[in-house]
Design goal:
Layout: H1 3-28, H2 31-42, E1 47-51, H3 53-68, E2 73-75, H4 78-81, E3 94-99, H5 105-116, E4 120-125, H6 131-135, E5 138-141, H7 157-176, H8 181-187, H9 191-197, H10 200-203, E6 212-214, H11 219-229, E7 233-237, E8 243-248, H12 249-256, E9 272-273, E10 277-279, H13 284-294, E11 298-302, E12 314-319, H14 320-325, E13 329-330, E14 335-336
Parallel strand pairs: 1-2, 1-3, 3-4, 4-5, 6-7, 10-11
Antiparallel strand pairs: 7-8, 8-9, 11-12, 13-14
Helix pairs in contact: 1-7, 2-7, 3-7
Length: 337
């Protein structure tokens, strides 16, 4: 066997061992898991995740995942806990303590102190006979056959099992709490995730910022409206307030090129009919796609979503600059941050 073949084999063996640990975990998820989810979902306080070493690192990730998916959580290091951070604790908090052996001295020192505050304890351990398991209200068994480490010492399979159990809790809680995509968007305003979840309604101009003139308005009035609102267009509406067209900078230039650019000419004789319109609920990136495909820089936002119909009332305007400022860019092949 060559050196490369040996390296590849080692990598595959590690993956197989950890996959086996996850498969073993599936059978360990049962009534205790359901009780843990129910306890957390019904609890009015936060979740405190704690652990030492590699278990602590996994605990930080579990706390972060729970928080992002609607269950407020934070990590507390046991050493920091017994040196002041217990001041963050109240009887409303729920504790998740992670320890493969269940015998971690620092952790077992901290757990009775949580009890003193009236907190309920969820243990995540591979040892059901441990002190941690005995003191906990609920114990989530994360027993593994062996670590991927050839010495069966370094936490590998055991931390993978703990991580998966934490993810299982977070997702079950998401469903239990009816956590919605809109909630997820509120928790992730930045980065690619945040940009992908932005809606037109989050970025559009509304109220007095929206340029609107009546269909029988004169061009002098339309020009004043466009100049004052500075969006390069104005919507044109009928007496009932429904959108009938738009006047853009391009329409304005074409009008000025006429031999007689009469400022008293009716706006609806200059406007572009059947303009593109979008609903405020569509993804902002889709609005940019429409702009790119039709070579326009602004869209009217109406109170209904079918852009093929114009008998709708304008409630806002979305400009290409608004999308660019938010960080959305459409390349023709997709979206980039």
């Amino acid at each position: 066997m060559t050196r490369y073949e040996s390296i590849i084999q080692s990598g595959r063996e590690t993956a197989q061992i950890e996959m086996s640990a996850i498969k073993r975990l599936v059978d360990q998820i049962g009534d205790e898991f359901a009780r843990a989810v129910e306890m957390i979902a019904e609890n009015s306080g936060r979740v405190i995740v704690t652990g030492i070493g590699k278990s602590g690192i996994i605990g930080k990730k579990i706390a972060a995942t729970m928080t992002s998916l609607g269950t407020a959580a934070f990590f507390m290091h046991p050493s920091e806990g017994i040196h002041g951070d217990l001041g963050l604790v109240s009887e409303k908090e729920m504790i998740i303590a992670i320890s493969k052996s269940g015998k971690t001295a620092e952790l077992n020192h901290l757990i009775p102190l949580f009890r003193h505050y009236g907190c309920r304890i969820i243990a995540m351990t591979g040892n059901l006979d441990s002190q941690l398991a005995r003191i906990a209200d609920v114990t989530l068994h994360i027993d593994i056959e062996k670590e991927a480490c050839p010495f069966d010492l370094a936490p590998t399979s055991s931390t993978t099992a703990a991580l998966v159990m934490g993810d299982a809790l977070a997702i079950a809680l998401l469903k239990e709490k009816n956590f919605r995509l809109s909630d997820f968007a509120r928790n992730h305003p930045g980065g690619v995730i945040g940009k992908s979840l932005l809606r037109v309604g989050d970025l559009m101009h509304t109220g007095d910022e929206v340029p609107i003139v009546q269909h029988d308005a004169r061009m002098r009035d339309a020009l004043l409206e466009m100049t004052g609102k500075r969006l390069g267009m104005t919507a044109v509406v009928d007496p009932s307030g429904c959108l009938t067209g738009v006047i853009t900078d391009g329409d304005l230039r074409r009008w000025l090129c006429l031999e007689s650019a009469d400022p008293d000419r009716p706006a609806d004789s200059i406007m572009t009919r059947n303009p593109k319109a979008v609903d405020k609920k569509i993804p902002a990136r889709e609005a940019m796609k429409i702009m790119e495909q039709h070579a326009i820089t602004v869209l009217v936002v109406t109170d209904s979503g079918n852009s093929n119909e114009i008998r709708k009332r304008p409630i806002g305007v979305i400009h290409l600059h608004d999308l660019v400022k938010s960080g959305i860019r459409y390349t023709g092949k997709g979206y980039a941050e």
